[in-house]
Automatic annotation (TrEMBL):
Domain DUF1559: 47-337
Source organism of the structure: Rubripirellula lacrimiformis
One Pfam family hit: SBP_bac_10
Ranges in coiled-coil conformation: none
Record's keyword terms, sorted: Membrane, Transmembrane, Transmembrane helix
Membrane-spanning ranges: 22-46
Protein name (database record): DUF1559 domain-containing protein
Length: 355
């Protein structure tokens, strides 16, 4: 007689496999916390690496612009590009950046710019239609990758018509600003670029390794505003339009870092800083000034065609500059102001210290 023995299924499981236990809630929370700590440690390192790459790209842009300047000078008997020549009703102010285009591998864009066309007065005349396409073309080597601002903005012209214009983060040295020359076509400043300037390497008596020729700045968000908060964001992005122009009293307040007085005196705020690479003398053109140190807490100024565009950047701790010898330097926010001013003059005979 055949006898079969039957055991419960549970007995097979207990004999053939070990039992498994799931994560407890406490263990799961610990794992999540550890992952969060690791991400928190890793993210700043990733961001720092990305910023280092952007800063290197910015430095390369400025190096290329410096080389373009040297090639321009070689082609024009040592002369530097200026901010324009006398025109009809206004300076025919093709900017130094526009004049450097052939030496920055931008031949296709050069073909869109007819330098013989009169550009007209920015407050009375529309930009000639023949220049509209060129004005709206963004040039990659003119843009710092750390600046999040869009490359183009819309310009409302005197007739009410609108045109796209592209900006630049790099501008040419208009002067130290300590001579109180802020209009690029009314007087000769102590720098390197203004309308009808005929600066050559031989003009730089302070030495090409002691004189900066281009500096980085931040492009504005466009438009204007009647009132803005008194903070660093406003100072970096907007320029004050002083109620009585760029007067001695407002300059004294700026020199003393009295930003409360500067903010209180502003009649409006201009957001078009460096929005227009094509034109040099207009308020939105690419000329920079050394009156205030890099990334100053005091905002820049714009009054008609007079302007103070300071060196500013989104890099931590300073801004990029190109010197007349072609070298690129990162100048820190803590640079001595007297040394800073000396770097902007072509023949001030100053002895520039460490920067």
């Amino acid at each position: 007689m055949l006898c079969l023995s039957v055991r419960p299924v549970s007995s097979y499981r207990s004999s053939g496999a070990t039992s498994r236990r799931a994560f407890t809630l406490v263990e799961l929370l610990v794992v999540i916390a550890i992952i969060g700590v690791l991400v928190g440690l890793l993210l700043p390192a990733v961001q720092a690496a990305r910023e280092a790459a952007r800063r290197m790209s910015c430095s390369n842009n400025m190096k290329q612009i410096g080389l373009g300047l040297h090639n321009y000078a070689s082609a024009y008997r040592g002369q530097f590009p200026n901010a324009g020549y006398p025109g009809i009703g206004y300076i025919n102010d093709y900017s130094p950046m526009a004049k450097l285009l052939p030496f920055l591998e931008q031949q296709n864009l050069v073909e869109l710019v007819d330098f013989s066309i009169q550009m007209g007065h920015p407050g009375k005349d529309d930009l000639p239609v023949e220049l509209h396409e060129a004005a709206g073309k963004a040039v990659p080597s003119f843009l710092c990758p750390s600046d999040p601002e869009q490359a183009t903005h819309i310009l409302s012209m005197p007739s009410g018509a609108e045109v796209a214009i592209a900006g630049t983060n790099y501008g040419m040295n208009h002067g130290s600003g300590m001579d109180n020359v802020f209009h690029p076509s009314q007087a000769e400043p102590d720098g390197l670029c203004w309308s009808n300037a005929r600066i050559r390497f031989a003009s730089i008596l302070d030495g090409t390794s002691n004189t900066l020729v281009f500096a980085e700045t931040i492009r504005g968000p466009g438009g204007s505003a009647a009132d803005l908060p008194n903070n660093l964001v406003t100072s970096q992005l907007y320029r004050s339009s002083p109620s009585n122009g760029i007067s001695d009293s407002i300059l004294a307040a700026a020199d003393n870092h009295d930003f409360d007085t500067v903010f209180a005196d502003a009649s409006s705020w201009n957001g078009q800083r460096h929005a227009y690479w094509l034109r040099g003398c207009v308020p939105d053109g690419p000329l920079v000034n050394g009156r205030m140190g890099p990334n100053s807490r005091v905002p820049d100024f714009s009054y008609r065609s007079s302007k103070i565009n300071s060196a500013r950047s989104n890099h931590t701790g300073g801004a990029m500059t190109t010197f007349a010898d072609g070298s690129v330097h990162f100048i820190t926010d803590s640079v001595d102001i007297e040394v800073w001013h000396a770097l902007w003059t072509r023949s001030g005979r100053e002895v520039a210290g460490a920067y």
